[in-house]
Amino acid sequence: GAGVSQSPSNKVTEKGKDVELRCDPISGHTALYWYRQSLGQGLEFLIYFQGNSAPDKSGLPSDRFSAERTGGSVSTLTIQRTQQEDSAVYLCASSLSHVGAYEQYFGPGTRLTVT
Amino acid sequence: GENVEQHPSTLSVQEGDSAVIKCTYSDSASNYFPWYKQELGKRPQLIIDIRSNVGEKKDQRIAVTLNKTAKHFSLHITETQPEDSAVYFCAASTGGTGRRALTFGSGTRLQVQP
Question: Is B100 close to A48, i.e. CB distance below 8 A?
Answer without folding.
Answer: yes
